Amino acid sequence: MGILTATLACADWLHLGDDLRALERGGCDWYHLDIMDGHYVPNLCLNFDLIRAVRAASPLPVDCHLMVENPGDYLPQLAQNRVERAAFHLGCPVDTASLLKELRRAGIAPGLALNPDEPVGALSPYLELCDWVLLMGVKPGFSGQSFLPGTVERVARLAALRRTLGRPLLIEVDGGIGPENGRACADAGADALVAGAFAVFSQPDGVEAACRRFRAAAFPGT
């Protein structure tokens, strides 16, 4: 069964509770939370007060995408707010293997995010320590970008690495995802898709209907 997760960075923050309930009714499985520090990417996005409010308002799991230079600094608050999954970027100036192990010790499923200009093979030394990979379909840091078509091939390459690895590894794709390219990513081996402004939050018939339509198109039969 495919997993649909929606990025709350694209939600209506003045009516966030309404959007959370609409996502739940529409079949969303997780919430995707983007943390941006203004350094790794130019934008600032979300904070832990908002994450705390989301956790109090909804039972759905949370995956967290850390677009920050020093992801280890965020680990205590990730744990305090019961974030189920967190991914940081492969290119961060940290000891990647050590931080993945620290996330696991904190009870958080560890993951790595990979930018479009980074080769899939660069993940290989760390996949034994990962529970998931967040494969970017756009450059990180800005919503509304167009999906990069080479992403589908990158999903297929990562799925091939997963077969070689011989252990569970969830593949999630983030950025510019819509029903058609979402289906292509799922067919190539993606397990989870991040829905944003284009797919869910800007549709004229509302968040719930858009969420249902996205799921039916990207993951038919679920």
From TrEMBL:
Cofactor(s) listed in the protein's UniProt record: Fe(2+); Zn(2+); Mn(2+)
Alphabetized SUPFAM superfamilies for the sequence: Ribulose-phoshate binding barrel (SSF51366)
Pfam family, one: Ribul_P_3_epim
Database matches in InterPro entries: Aldolase_TIM (IPR013785), Ribul_P_3_epim-like (IPR000056), RibuloseP-bd_barrel (IPR011060)
GO biological process, one term: nicotinamide nucleotide metabolic process
Quaternary structure, from the entry: Homodimer.
PANTHER family in the cross-refs: RIBULOSE-5-PHOSPHATE-3-EPIMERASE
Protein name as it appears in the record: Ribulose-phosphate 3-epimerase
Organism phylogeny: Bacteria, Bacillati, Bacillota, Clostridia, Eubacteriales
